[in-house]
Design brief:
The structure holds 2 protein chains of 2 kinds. By secondary structure, chain A is mainly alpha-helical. Helices cover 70% and strands 5% of the residues of chain A. Chain B has one domain: Formate dehydrogenase/DMSO reductase fold, CATH 1.20.1630. Chain B has 18 helices and 6 strands. The chains are: A mainly alpha, B mainly alpha.
Chain lengths: 530, 405
């Protein structure tokens, strides 16, 4: 009988905290690297085509800011890659056969491209031809983008595992189709949504810095500021519309494969047909709501049919809520989704069957000469059949209480609203900048707009980080959806060791961030003067 | 016989080759690739070795800046090689990745931290607005310069000396019912990897790598920086690095050839202790012995010619190639010829081999196709740096350059 799982829950929490810390810091630097790469490459393309020194100065200026930021992305990134092993040892074995490949490809294909051509971009102005330099600048951005592709493939695979099969002899999941993994629809969408969103950050950053020059009435940087705003407005508008479209598609995909995440994002306790989309509701940001008792979150303002459209692409489609998922429900197409209790039971059956199977394999070797009737082999087949039938719910076998299956609703609910709200704001913001350009307005005299442009910068980061909060909080308790929960993924390291490195990294990253911001501000203040 | 050749022959000559043979070939192929990456990483740690000598090779501020700018253009390649080494190990030998990284936690964390602080040190140290001043960052470069090679070298030495871990896949299934740990790989002591540094032979090898990277650093500086003072100082400093390096390296090599190793039975996977295992490996895979000797001769040639000659600054080339060849052979004999590449001192049968730690046939084959781009990657890196290093670093070059550190 299985009673309970003796896992040091503090160890799991610290491992999660450390990974979240590293990822959140990493994501402060990476979007600016990728977003700025596009804008500085466009500026350098203008230089290549016109030969004007102005464009060279402009692209060199943005490249200088890029350089200050770049190293931090690299520094935080290496920790992330190794943390899969250091903190999630079981996970690394259980799915390493699939997950390791994208990481290795990222290194071989993307990182070398990035690190080689970034050096040409920095040091090559006097050493290589203009065309070669321009190519290097684009390749630096391309390298960063390809690397994003592979790491997002890896992330998407964890949210929606495809192209693999479980091998009971090696006791791990093994890849069966590389293309299914690399071009999973979930991955394609996640890649587009994430990369496009980084262009928003690049654009908001460039407009903010330029606005500061205009606000300070700096004559030397005036032309650069105005022209950079134009480039950024175009990139920003395209990107913010693109992020909205791909975001909508992402939400649809989540509804298909991670219904619990969608229910948490929407604080939808009891689902149904014709479900409305919550615009805002009084969800307590600091505690998990009593979803079992409450009908719905109080003070709810909603868009009729909105969630049914978002989740099923039909007006009346069925969207399950938290309680539906726990109790089990029948999908639109008639398939029955079992209750959490049943899934947990079947998960435990799968684990026991696998253990029996492995013991029988050992017995078979030991008693090979005594088992002439093939009794062991027959029993092995039987256990294997039980495993295969229930493997779908393998991860549920590690769940102790069904409440573990509900992600932390407040974070999902609010982070989702912040992301969508700010994302919508950016569409209007960049559209307005384009409108002013079209009407030939002099924005350097519009003080309130310039101040607003600077305020937008922290908003862009909040928006982007919120997106990751939704994606990663929403999939709890799973490291790999339905297959492996965080409690069964960790390494055998005491919580105190992980807590120590957590504080160490927090201190290091924060110190480095403070220095980076300070240097960045000084560089901006210095402007284009040498 | 030389196993790779025979496998290669099997795979090429017959389409009907058994899946088992293919798997065995790919496991050897991927151990080769991981070894090549490891060997390149040791070479590229000339960046670390060089950084550890900034204050001894450079006396004036200008000289130090030239040195920092010289390694500052290559550090990203070293970093990328380290990351790719980790990624390739993960993809090809996931059980090694999960066992070593999740077990020798502190060892890997220390390595990571020193590389992380190094990454920002170039960009930040001489910039206006750097609140901390240049000193802490130069200290970080030096810290990484010593600890990076020492700890990575130490990690490689554990391939021969063994580590204190246990692998029990049943934990994930039985730990649940028994109320015990569900984690497959666990370290058998509480130090989580720091115990490696208590083994004297790990330290001997680690410090040999430290002095080797310092030699490579000096040779690289002498080639890359055109400055009479730095070159003449480098030539002198080489002697001080060469003596301890040779003592430590020869000591370790002799120890390695005389020591026991863990061998596995190709049919059953059972692991036994075999006296003189690594010596046997070199004799069985005799072409590797020739490569090893060639590598060592090349390193010595680059080293001594630079010390003796007043004008020769090309020592990094023979010494660099020699380093790659030497380290490559050391890593290959750790994993090929039925050798456990990650021996467990806690439980013999837990030891990792390229067979029990590897990915599936499908993944190894897919990744083998991906590996075909590696020559192109090496090609464009070589092309770019031939272009970029045509002009050596001088005082003027740094002031002209747009992006000086």
């Amino acid at each position: 009988m299985i009673h309970f799982l003796a896992i040091d829950s503090a160890a799991v929490d610290w491992a999660r905290a450390q990974f979240a810390l590293t990822a959140a810091y990493h994501w402060l630097f990476v979007p600016l690297t990728m977003g700025l790469a596009v804008i500085m490459a466009i500026a350098e393309t203008c230089y290549y085509r016109t030969g004007k020194v102005f464009w060279k100065t402009t692209s060199q200026f943005w490249q200088r800011l890029f350089g200050i930021n770049f190293a931090m992305g690299v520094a935080t990134g290496i920790i992330l890659e190794f943390e899969f092993g250091t903190n999630w040892s079981n996970y690394s074995w259980f799915v390493g056969d699939i997950f390791g490949a994208p990481l290795a490809i990222e290194g071989i294909v993307a990182f070398f491209m990035e690190s080689t051509f970034v050096a040409v971009m920095y040091f090559g102005w006097e050493k290589v031809s203009r065309g070669f330099h321009l190519t290097s600048t684009w390749l630096t951005g391309l390298g960063a983008t390809i690397s994003a592709w592979w790491i997002l493939v890896a992330n998407s695979w964890m949210q929606y595992p495809v192209g693999c099969a479980f091998n009971p002899d090696t006791m791990r999941n093994e890849m069966t189709s590389f293309w299914e993994v690399a071009f999973s629809p979930f991955a394609v969408d996640k890649f587009l949504h994430t990369v496009i969103s980084t262009w928003i950050i690049g654009a908001v950053f460039v407009v903010a810095v330029s606005a500061w020059y205009l606000l300070k009435k700096r004559e030397a940087e005036r032309e650069m500021a105005i022209k950079s705003i134009k480039i950024a407005a175009v990139v920003g508008l395209l990107a913010s519309v693109g992020a909205a479209v791909t975001g909508d598609e992402s939400a649809y995909k989540v509804a298909q494969v991670q219904p619990m995440k969608l229910a948490a994002m929407e604080a939808l306790y009891n689902g149904g047909h014709d479900v409305s989309l919550t615009a805002v509701a009084a969800v307590n940001p600091f505690s998990q709501p009593d979803y079992k008792q409450e009908e719905e979150a109080p003070w709810r303002i909603a868009i009729p049919y909105g969630l049914s459209i978002l989740g099923t692409r039909t007006l009346h489609g069925f969207v399950p809520g938290v309680n539906d998922i726990l109790k089990g429900y029948t999908c639109e197409d008639g398939t029955v989704e079992p209750s959490a209790a049943e899934k947990m039971e079947r998960g435990k059956m799968a684990i026991i069957a696998l253990n029996n199977y492995r013991r029988l394999c050992a017995d078979e070797e030991t008693f090979a000469d005594q088992d002439s009737d093939g009794l062991i082999a027959a029993e092995k087949e039987k256990q294997l059949a039980v495993l295969t039938e229930n493997f779908k719910y393998f991860g549920y076998g590690y769940i102790r209480d069904e409440s573990e299956l509900v992600p932390y609703i407040p974070v999902n609910f609010w982070a989702f609203r912040i992301m969508v709200g700010l994302g919508t704001l950016f569409i209007f913001y960049f559209a307005y900048l384009m409108f002013l350009w079209w009407r030939k307005k002099d924005i350097s005299s519009m003080k309130w707009l310039l101040i607003a442009a600077i305020v937008m910068l922290p908003c862009a980061y909040v928006c982007s980080e919120s997106g990751w909060l939704v994606a990663e909080f929403g999939r709890q308790p799973w490291t790999i959806q339905d297959m492996l929960p965080v409690t069964a993924s960790i390494s055998d390291i005491g919580s105190s060791a992980v807590a120590t490195t957590f504080w160490l990294f927090l201190f290091l990253f924060t110190a480095m961030l403070v220095v980076e911001i300070s240097i960045m501000l000084k560089q901006i203040k210095r402007g284009i003067s040498e | 016989m030389y196993p790779l050749f025979s496998f290669l022959q099997t795979v090429i000559s017959s389409q009907e080759a058994m899946a088992g043979d293919k798997l065995m070939f790919l496991q050897h192929y991927w151990w080769l690739l991981v070894s090549v990456l490891g060997a390149l990483l040791v070479l590229m740690m000339f960046v670390q070795g060089g950084n550890s000598l900034i204050f001894s090779l450079g006396v004036t501020d200008d000289e130090r800046r030239m040195l920092i700018n010289s390694t500052g253009r290559k550090w990203e390649l070293t970093f990328t090689t380290l990351v790719t080494f980790g990624g390739a190990a993960f993809a090809a030998f996931p059980l090694f990745y999960s066992t070593s990284f999740g077990g020798a936690y502190w060892l890997w964390m220390l390595i990571l931290v020193t590389f992380v602080v190094q990454a920002v040190s170039y960009e930040f140290q001489h910039k206006q607005g750097n609140l901390l001043g240049a000193r802490p960052f130069q200290f970080c470069l030096q810290l990484n310069g010593i600890l990076g090679p020492l700890l990575l070298g130490g990690a490689v030495a554990t391939f021969f000396e063994g580590s204190n871990f246990v692998v029990a896949k049943s934990n994930m299934l039985e730990g649940l019912a028994a109320g015990g740990s569900v984690v497959i790989s666990s370290w058998a002591n509480a130090s989580h990897g720091l115990d490696a540094l208590l083994c004297p032979w790990v330290l001997v090898f680690g410090f040999a790598v430290v002095f080797l990277t310092r030699i490579l650093g000096i040779l690289y500086f002498m080639n890359n920086v055109e400055d009479a003072n730095i070159r003449s100082r480098g030539s002198v400093r080489l002697v001080g690095q060469a003596v301890p390096f040779l003592i430590l390296f020869v000591a370790y090599l002799v120890h390695l050839l005389l020591k026991d190793g863990y061998a596995y039975d190709a049919a059953t996977g059972a692991i036994v202790v075999e006296p003189y295992k690594y010596l046997h490996n070199l004799l069985a895979l005799w072409p590797l012995a020739i490569v090893l000797v060639t590598g060592i001769i090349l390193v010595l040639y680059g080293l001594f010619r630079t010390i003796v000659s007043k004008t020769y600054v090309g020592g990094i080339w023979p010494a660099g190639v020699g380093t790659v060849l030497t380290v490559l052979v050391l890593l290959l004999i750790a994993g090929w010829n039925c050798t456990a590449f990650y021996p467990s001192t806690a439980d013999l049968q837990s030891s990792l081999t390229i067979v029990n730690a590897s990915s599936s046939l499908f993944t190894l084959r897919t990744m083998a196709y991906v590996s075909l781009v590696i020559p192109f990657v090496i090609g464009y890196i070589a092309y770019v740096w031939r272009l970029m290093d045509r002009k050596k670093i001088t005082k003027e070059e740094i002031t002209e350059t747009h992006h000086a550190y």
